[in-house]
Amino acid sequence: MGDPGAESVFLWTKEKKGVNRRGAGPMDASLFGRGAGEGLGVHICTGPVYVRNAEPGDVIELRIMDVKPRPCANPAHAGKTFGSNAAAWWGFHYKELMTEPKPREVITIYEIDATGQRNWAKAVYNFQWTPQTDPFGVVHKTIDYPGVPVDHSTIKENHGVLKNVQIPIRPHFGVIGLAPKEADIVDSIPPGYFGGNIDNWRIGKGATMYYPVSAEGGLLSVGDPHASQGDSELCGTAIDLAMRDSLKPVTLADISERQKISLSYLEQLFGKLRRRGLVSSVRGPGGGYQMAKKLEEVSVADIIRAVDEPIDATQCGGRENCKDDRKCLTHDLWASLNDRIFEYLNSVTLAQMVVKAQAQAAETKVMELKDQRARRDQAEPVV
Question: Do 142 and 164 reside in the same domain of the chain?
Fold first, then answer.
């Protein structure tokens, strides 16, 4: 293969198995007889990564700065990488196929441009799964255990499939999560409160995710990289391949430092918001804060009232003792202004603010791209 990282995971011969446990099942394969771990949780992840200052009860903000395909290490395929899609027995198509033989499992190999110059994948070939005997002598009639080497003398490669079909790529990670609070081996297939196997193509470059901390340091793991996927893995999997990422985890304490707001003051504010029913909290491992209402149901005025931040244009604070312990001539004017301000703030919801902030961010990115393009065009020599 030429890739030490991949070989350390997938190596499996009669003499050696790079990673013996493959799943959260029993090591003696007493459940299904597939192999150590029984394939109950099959995702290869990088981690765990220790995040400084992350403590149980915190929430980590994770920014995905970039996601790129990992280039093939084979010199014969420089600038390329390859991914696979498995239409497998656990997919929804398995028993609903239109053509014979059925049911059947089919693996399709895709080529992806690792340089970023082409934003689509193309099929190279596919083949129907046939019973495979792993190096330890176990026969796998279906794709039931990860990393079983395929004996290509037992399968038929079908080239020229999906002609003229371009699969748009949108690189993302199917699995991102922190260590769960359970002190045991956890199946990686079902997602949980800690994140995990969410399989959402939107969790790619530019996305920001929030994860509750259950263990000191958070212990972040990232894996199950996908080149492309729809709104689910309907047939069984996405187009899986090796990826490189650039991530930026931020703790609640770091957010406090970034916004120049003391952590103790933030805790006071959230305490008031919680008492007013705007946010809810969970203490201890896996704890943190979350909205208790929909964003559309919370106005800016609700927040101001909850945290007791006065907005008052009157000099007397509404006590009507502005001048010689009596109401001044302009008191009603400023009191009416107060009413108008709160009327406006009551009409603005958090949902509207989020949409506006996203639109402004997108507009800023467009302006930056236009500026970069203008500078590039000016720098190009005139022929």
Answer: yes
64 in helix, strand or coil?
Answer: strand
Considering the domain architecture, whether residues 193 and 289 belong to the same structural domain is answered as: no
Cβ-based neighbours of 184, under 8 Å, separated by 6 or more: none
Structure tokens at 203: 């969790």
Residue 367 resides in a domain = no
Q: Is-contact 195 211, C-beta < 8 A?
A: yes
Query: What DSSP element (H or E) covers 223?
Result: strand 220-228
196-222 as b/e, with b when 16 or more CB fall inside 10 Å? bbbbbbebbeebebebbbbbebbbbbb
Residue 247 binned pLDDT confidence (cut-offs 50, 70, 90): low
| pLDDT, tens digit, 9 for 90 and up, residues 351-379 | 888 778 767 766 776 666 666 666 666 65
Token pair recorded at residue 197: 């196997």
- Give me 141's structure tokens: 């009639």
Q: What is the reported pLDDT for 288?
A: 55
On whether both 149 and 202 belong to a single domain, the answer is yes
Assess whether 238 and 214 both reside in one domain.
yes
What is the Cα–Cα distance from 23 to 303, expressed in whole angstroms?
46
**Domain presence at residue 358:** no
Q: What is the pTM for the complete model shown?
A: 0.65
Same-domain status, 58 and 205: yes
**Whole-number Å distance between alpha carbons of 37 and 23:** 4
* pLDDT tens per residue, range 325-346: 777 877 788 888 888 888 999 9
Last residue of a domain, one of 197, 231, 250: 250
The residue segments making up the domain with residue 245 are 46-250
Question: Distance between CA atoms of 189 and 223, rounded to whole angstroms?
Answer: 12
State CA 173 to chain mean position distance: 6
135 assigned to some structural domain: yes
- The CA distances from residue 38 to 27, 107, 119, 131, 222, in Å, are 8, 21, 36, 17, 22
Show the CA angle centred on residue 191, arms to residues 266 and 221, nearest 5°: 70
Q: Taking residues 258-264, what's their average pLDDT?
A: 83
